[in-house]
Amino acid sequence: MVIEILSGEPIYRNGEFCGFVTSTVYGFTFEKLVWLGFLHAPSSKKITVNYIRGSTYEINIATKRFKAHSNVYQPTEMGPTVLLYTN
């Protein structure tokens, strides 16, 4: 199944809303669509690599949630970047 989205779809972390997809690209390494987005943590939490890796993610597309896998890397001093993709 091909899931094609542009942006604005909600992202859920452990079943709770945590952000929106901001852009979509085709990842030639993954041979899949890759979604980029911003994640928000509760005010008492700091987003770290462990915070991201220790979670399950879903992206809501047309009222259906699809399981997403995270891939974390840190290309700059800005902090961790998360790529989300589905099977």
Automatic annotation (TrEMBL):
InterPro entries: GcvT/YgfZ_C, GcvT_C. Residues 6-69 form the Aminomethyltransferase C-terminal domain. SUPFAM superfamilies: Aminomethyltransferase beta-barrel domain. This is Aminomethyltransferase C-terminal domain-containing protein.
